[in-house]
Amino acid sequence: MTIDFILQVATLLGVVFAVFLYFKKPQERSEITDAVFDNKFINLEKTVVNLRDNHIHTLQGDLDKHIQDNQMFAIETTRSLTKVETLLEQLLKK
């Protein structure tokens, strides 16, 4: 074996390795990018679900308060109308 033959084999192996890396690196970058995108998408989905649940909880609390206030207003209105009715009955009897 001569030195020329060894250099040719080394050069050929270097070219094959360079071509291999040329096609391998973009694939690895693509896989990493896909994994990062999937992770971000999952985090976004969790955030949306969390916001939705918090918003529903807030709306439920607001609705409960509105119902309670409306019931109190109905009770106060009934009391006031009862007083007015009693006064009218007393005035009409006179």
Architecture overview:
With 94 residues, this protein is mainly alpha-helical. Helix content is 97%, strand content 0%. It is built from 1 helix and no strands. The model has no long low-confidence stretch (mean pLDDT 88).
The gist of it:
The chain has 94 residues and is an all-alpha fold. The chain has one helix and no strands.
Q: Specify Rg, calculated over alpha carbons.
A: 40 Å
Strand content: under 5%
Indicate the mean pLDDT. Answer: 88
Number of helices: 1
Shape: rod-shaped
Question: N-to-C terminal Cα separation, in Å?
Answer: 137 Å
Q: Give the % helix.
A: over 70%
Number of strands: 0
Q: Could you state the order of secondary-structure elements as H and E?
A: H
Contiguous uncertain segments of 5+ residues = none
Name a few traits of the molecule.
single chain; 94 residues; mainly alpha; 97% helix; 0% strand; rod-shaped
Q: Any chance you could write out the topology, listing elements then pairs?
A:
Elements: H1 3-93
